[in-house]
Design a protein that fits this description.
Elements: H1 7-33, H2 51-63, H3 66-86, H4 92-101, H5 118-132, H6 138-147, H7 157-171, H8 180-189, H9 195-209, H10 214-220, H11 224-228
Helix pairs in contact: 2-4, 3-4, 3-7, 4-6, 4-7, 5-6, 6-7, 9-10
Protein name: HD domain-containing protein
InterPro entries: HD/PDEase_dom (IPR003607), HD_domain (IPR006674)
Pfam families: HD
Length: about 240
């Protein structure tokens, strides 16, 4: 099955996850205790407006429940902030589409029947969708989505930024790297109401139905703790 881990892969992934969680803890604590950098990294951000992005946005709106759609849109905004901070220059259209579709396989509409990894399956859904729309970057988007549940950050620009944005929105990773006022503005634009409960429910389902996936392993390693104590929810 696509994305399933054998025992050796589970052990490697678990070690990486524990190291990453411990390594990222100081940043999360700083975000709780401080306001982060003082200078906003951007003021306004408009999504790229193309025929493909309009089709993908409509697909996202018709497939996600509101908490998960908000997560995808915040992930895109966080990714843009990290691009500015890290000096990464992605293809903006690819980044927007990857963020919109990265959790598409968690929806009832596209949920895979067979065991596997929702991120890998989501990448394949994105690939097929983009190919049907004639987009030339279907493979790159699919790879970025498949890699967003990795513990280590991918190197490719779009994959790196999707990974960073999603981890921030779920676990608060690198929250201290962003200005508190900017975080407030992003959350005000796309509120997090109901997201922690929604995502926890989905991860419990993944752990039960796809026990050999990265999502299942991360859930059993304690994903619920950073999810429920994310500094993004600090008033």
């Amino acid at each position: 099955m696509r994305g399933e881990l054998d025992l050796a892969a589970k052990l490697r992934f678990a070690r990486q996850a524990v190291v990453a969680q411990v390594g990222g803890l100081p940043s999360v604590l700083r975000a709780w205790l401080t306001d982060g950098p003082g200078r906003p990294l951007f003021e306004d951000r408009e999504p790229p407006d193309t025929a493909v992005t309009r089709e993908v946005l409509e697909l996202a709106r018709s497939s996600y429940d509101e908490p998960l759609l908000g997560h995808c849109l915040r992930t895109w905004l966080w990714a843009g902030l990290f691009a500015a901070r890290d000096g990464v220059k992605p293809n903006e259209e690819l980044l927007y589409i990857a963020c919109l579709l990265h959790d598409i396989a968690l929806t009832d509409r596209f949920r895979p029947v067979e065991a596997g990894c929702f991120a890998v399956e989501g990448g394949e859904i994105a690939r097929t969708t983009l190919q049907s729309l004639g987009a030339p970057y279907a493979d790159e988007v699919a790879s970025a989505i498949a890699a967003h549940m990795d513990v280590r950050s991918p190197r490719a620009p779009v994959a790196h930024l999707l990974h960073a944005g999603a981890r921030l929105d779920v676990a608060g990773t690198r929250a201290a790297d962003l200005p508190r006022q900017t975080i407030r503005e992003v959350v005000a634009q796309h509120p997090r109401d109901g997201f922690p409960h929604c995502f926890a429910t989905l991860m419990r389902r993944e752990a039960a139905e796809r026990p050999n996936s990265r999502a299942a392993l991360l859930w059993h390693l304690g994903m619920r703790l950073p999810l429920n104590h994310n500094p993004l929810d600090r008033s």
